[in-house]
Amino acid sequence: MDCVIKTYRRESVLGFFKGMSFPIGSVAMVNSVLFGTYSNSLLLLSSTSPQERKAQPLNYGYVFVAGSIAGFVQAYCLAPFDLIKVRLQNQTEPRTRPGVAPPQYRGPLHCARSIIQEEGPRGLFRGAWALVLRDTPTLGLYFLTYEGLSRWLTSDSKEPGSATMLVAGGFAGIMSWTIATPMDVVKSRMQMDGLKRRKYRGLLDCVISSARQEGPGVFFRGLTLNSARAFPVNAVTFFSYEHLLRFLS
């Protein structure tokens, strides 16, 4: 609540929407990469089509491996967009106030251009390894949780109903963010590390330094908000995915 109040006082309502344009612009691409890679990985591993899987449920091992592959691929596609979002969100300077220095970045494109000029093209992938370590196992468990809950809530030989998709998707989202939050904290710190001066020598140094200075609890900052957001977002995501698959097939 303190964060909400201070953000509003310093940056007005617009402060809550910083860094939104890039995620909105990239969400379709990122999700198509994620679910497309997942579906094709399942096809490669199991040699069965979505229609054939209705009669013969997938091996859970295939689901986890396919989800992990999808998470790995998504992480590298997402890395530049996520970096720009984090940099913009961490600008606390108000846009217009007399006597106050303007923000370092004027928008997403200016942010991307500045990073390339100051840190080189590799700068756009700062924190990418933390993102890979966050998404690879987490998304394997994400799809595994959804598949397991869908089967548990659905009668034999029937397709999951809309309510099942929403509930299973929501809880899969909460579970994934519970696991992902520690590495998400590390990822965000690594992404901000190149902004003014280098504080960490690498990913492991970031983990050790953060734990020493702020205690183990630092790795679970933001978990409550992440979980509150995760349920509705992922419920709608899986609901849309399943119904689109049925429509297209």
From TrEMBL:
Residue stretches spanning the membrane: 20-39, 59-79
Protein name as it appears in the record: Solute carrier family 25 member 45
Membrane topology: Multi-pass membrane protein
Gene3D superfamilies: Mitochondrial carrier domain
Source organism of the structure: Sarcophilus harrisii (Tasmanian devil)
A GO MF term: transmembrane transporter activity
Signal peptide range: none
Family statement drawn from the similarity comment of this UniProt entry: Belongs to the mitochondrial carrier (TC 2.A.29) family.
Main subcellular location of this protein, as a coarse class: mitochondrion
GO cellular component: mitochondrial inner membrane
Mitochondrion listed as a keyword: yes
UniProt KW keywords: Membrane, Mitochondrion, Mitochondrion inner membrane, Repeat, Transmembrane, Transmembrane helix, Transport
Compartments reported by the entry: Mitochondrion inner membrane
Lineage, highest ranks first: Eukaryota, Metazoa, Chordata, Craniata, Vertebrata
PROSITE patterns: SOLCAR
Residue ranges of Solcar repeats: 58-152, 160-247
InterPro entries, per the entry: MCP, MCP_dom_sf, MCP_transmembrane, Mitochondrial_Carrier
